[in-house]
Amino acid sequence: MVEVGRSCIDSDYRTGTAIALLWSGLARYMLRNGHDYLIGYGPRYTGLHSR
Q1: What is the DSSP letter of 47?
Q2: Tens-digit pLDDT profile for residues 8-40
Q3: Which of 31, 35, 46, 49 has the greatest number of beta carbons closer than 10 A?
Q4: Domain boundaries, the chain
Q5: Of the candidates 22, 28, 29, which has an alpha carbon nearest to the alpha carbon of residue 7?
Q6: Whole-model pTM?
């Protein structure tokens, strides 16, 4: 089981690419280490926040 916490991405980089890389890295970690479950608060981009 892997537990994730919050993440913060600067508004200049909230195009979706950073979130995609984050989820890709989490998936790779889980597959390489034989984890079946991911729990906790996951990052999401809503586009509602700006500077």
Answers
A1: S
A2: 888 888 778 888 888 899 999 999 999 999 888
A3: 35
A4: 2-40
A5: 22
A6: 0.65
